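Replying to the earlier thread about multi-chain prediction with a worked example.

Input:
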Amino acid sequence: MVLFCIPCLVLISYFAILSIFFPKYRGYIKEGWRCFLDKIRRRKCVASFDSRMRHAVSMWFSEKGMPSIGKFLYDERKFNITLIVVGIVFTTLSIFLFILLINFLTSPSCPGPVCTVE
Amino acid sequence: MLNRNEKSEKMRRIYMDYAATTPVDSRAFEAMKPYFMTNFGNTMSLYSIGREAKRALEESREKVASLIRAKKNDIIFTGSATESNNLALKGFAFANKKKGKHIIISSIEHHCVLDSAHWLEKQGFEVTFLPVDKYGLIDPKQLEDHIRKDTILVSIMHANNEIGTIEPIKEIGKVCHDYDVCFHTDAAQSFGKIPIDVNKMNIDMLTANAHKMYGPKGVGTLFVRQGIKLDPLLHGGGHEFGLRSSTVNVAGIVGFGAVVDIAKKEMDSEAKRLSKLRDKLIEGILKIDNSYLNGHPTLRLPNNTNFWFAFIEGESLVLHLDMKGVAASTGSACSSESLEPSHVLMVIGLKPEQAHGSLRLTLGKQNKNADIDYVLEVLPRIVENLRKISPFKK
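Result:
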């Protein structure tokens, strides 16, 4: 159940980052959040947000001379799986970087993520 | 990629789904305004604002009647064309069941007629769904062959909402008249767009609504020729000659009357203008490879175009056109799990994958030559790019 909601969360994160620099993308965060709530309730997204994003992404690749990637992402199932993988990788990377940052701030001499305090 | 969508906020928005609904004409809106807050009376009340509401109601009734050359008291106002169609079919069937139980409708009727007919089947009526040709046309001769002694009602829409084909209503009405069978037509798409004369066309009942002709939503009408018996669907206060009890939507009906007045003056010139735009759009789109026109090439509404494109999903076309600022519709209705193709397109002979690739563009008052040029510029590129990523194209 949670897995089906991950694509929406990934899209929300993407637009959240974009909207820091470009306020015009803020509307998509709201739409993405509504879609996320619809998915949790096992409903189709009311404004077809996920469908629109899938079409936009696949068409973008097609227009940039990568029709095979566009074709791959055009399939709803493959698009969702791709976003779930991206979401998991992004989350793992974020956690790893966060730990690195904490370690750097607390003990700057520590070279890696895990350091022993002598 | 999404910059284009953002830019569409500044980009002009082109609406090409006038068959679905239309913006309210400002003149109609001005006419309606007093009936919301000043002349808000109930038409059944005896005091002055009630009498004014009643007067406005009757004035609008006369206007609607005059557009189709009907008598004023043969016009009933309802809440929508769907309600009018339900009343026409169910109301007539139950009021006349002693005369017979056979009803004939076309197989490309709007769902409110089809579903009403299916419901009547469950109530013990027999319904014949007349086939149509590849253009969606009914053959009056075929209709005649299906009329039986127990046939009480024939319901054939004047113009199809999806493919725009205009049926030979005059010939169909004559057949019904010759066999003394009541003839109902759903004119929701044609009312106010092309001339209708209920007497010359032998129409006994006619459905129309306001929101398809720049009027407000929530108001429809049913013409019922004097002498036709109907059982009402709504019982209560006895409004609308006892056929539609419910406090009357005066403001909406005044708006309806106002747009009828406008249609009387502008219908012919607007039909000519839209026909030219429609023909230019059809000519331009058919230049795209593997694109085909649905519906009759000439016997079609002045504002309707409907195409199917090979190897493409209509939903994708609509979404991408929306990203470019163009509002259109497809012949597929989304259900929760599956994409169902339009029953109209299937009946005229399209395969499911062809029906899925359909696009309907319907024009209206706000559309100009520049809008057609813009669509002809963006649509071929969208079709080309969609075919590159389409799972249907090997």
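The CA atoms of residues 100 and 106 of chain A lie 10 Å apart.

Feel free to reuse this layout for your own posts.
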